[in-house]
Design brief:
single chain; globular; 15 strands; 15 helices; six-stranded mixed beta sheet; 385 residues
């Protein structure tokens, strides 16, 4: 199953967007245009649906409250709404889930559900429509969604399970090398507990994945081989490789001696091999050699087409190398354009100017990235003089 359409109203940068999504989604735009916030809408739904995520109240509290996720461009209608359409085949709609949030007018001013609705199938059979009579008799019920209530979502639990499965990783090498501090049991977006995640994976799966990663790693970083996971005397998990150098006997190194690029590459490969659920990747090109970055889209495509896998991948990027791959179609790229009225989002296949450039033989990088550059960028050096 994949997310075939996303509608956001008054969410972060977006006052109102409605975009169709493919099985690969590349999100491009200027700095601060909302690329991360686009992914965060999906992470927010995931956190609500997670059994240990704390539901609606905890998820919003973690983000600073409803006012912090509400679009600054919101005017008369300041309610926050997220709609997702789920498809089994990329064409017909299997589910449509909609949630609209507002704030209590009295009392503790808690965030509450203004509406929560579920439709099933292309015939739009309404499965859930809140507030219902029970909600009207007990308004406290509206502080929770049905996504987070097993006893209430039996008719559409497939949606909750799907959202719960969404994976996100933006590995920060410095945090992986120095994991001191509390690791959230709900979400670990920056990889502080990445080694623990590997260690918790069943031995058979863990060994198989590390073998595949080692083969790929030896191509990208030829001096490294024999990737394995170990635990030290205190039971703390580590990654270890055999590193060739000028001495006759190669030495073993742990992750605290790996380069940023090596750590990010291992994290990326592990994430790509980790299941069939939607994967959200934030600027995977960071710290990587440009030649490696160019190979990422074909890798995504190859893993998506692997037998038994049907995985949707979302990628935010600024990289010319990544977007220069001729296999990326204009229907796979979403362009974010900021304005005083909020960021707009448009699939590139809807832009005639971009299609004309692509028909002329240019890549997505050549056609789209110039559209993300600040208007007066040439004055940047003058302002610092």
């Amino acid at each position: 199953m994949l997310i075939s359409r996303l509608v956001l109203k008054n969410w972060r940068n977006f006052q109102s967007i409605d975009v169709a999504l493919s099985d690969r989604v590349f999100i491009v735009g200027a700095n601060a245009s909302g690329k991360s916030n686009f992914l965060e809408a999906l992470r927010f739904l995931r956190d609500i649906a997670r059994p240990n995520g704390g539901g609606l109240q905890s998820s919003l509290e973690h983000k600073g409250g409803l006012s912090k996720v509400r679009c600054l461009s919101a005017r008369r209608n300041s309610d926050v709404e997220i709609d997702i359409y789920l498809s089994e085949d990329g064409e017909s709609t299997a589910w449509h889930y909609s949630i609209c949030l507002t704030q209590q007018a009295r009392g503790h001013h808690l965030p509450i559900v203004k509406h929560e609705r579920v439709w099933r199938g292309d015939n739009d059979k309404l499965v859930l429509d809140r507030p219902d009579e029970k909600d009207k008799g007990d308004s406290v019920r509206l502080t929770q969604t049905y996504l987070e209530q097993i006893s209430a979502n039996s008719e559409f639990r497939e949606i909750a399970k799907f959202l719960e499965s969404i994976r996100y990783l933006h590995l920060v090498p410095q945090l992986l090398r120095n994991p001191e501090g509390q690791i959230s049991t709900v979400d670990d977006p920056f990889g502080r507990g990445f080694l623990e995640t590997i260690a918790r994976t069943s031995e058979k799966t863990r060994r198989a994945r590390l073998r595949k990663i080692e083969k790929a790693l030896r191509i990208a970083v030829p001096q490294m081989k024999d990737l394995t996971d170990i635990k030290d005397e205190a039971g703390v998990p580590h990654l270890e490789v055999l590193c060739s150098h000028w001495r006759p006997n190669a030495g073993r190194q742990r992750e605290d001696q790996f380069s940023d690029g090596t750590l990010r590459l291992i994290g990326l490969f592990w994430s790509l091999l980790d299941g069939n659920s939607p994967l959200l990747l934030e600027e995977p090109e960071l710290s990587l050699n440009s030649a490696i970055v160019k190979r990422l889209p074909p890798i995504f495509n190859q893993l998506q087409k692997k037998k038994g896998r049907s995985r949707q991948i979302f990628v935010t990027t600024h990289s010319w190398e990544l977007l220069s791959d001729q296999g990326i179609g204009d229907e796979e790229v979403i362009l974010l354009t900021p304005s005083p009225e909020g960021t707009s989002a448009q699939v590139l296949s809807g832009r005639e100017d971009v299609r004309a450039l692509l028909d002329g033989g240019l890549s997505i990088a050549d056609a789209a990235l110039p559209l993300t550059a600040p208007e007066y960028l040439e004055q940047l050096s003058l302002e610092l003089a």
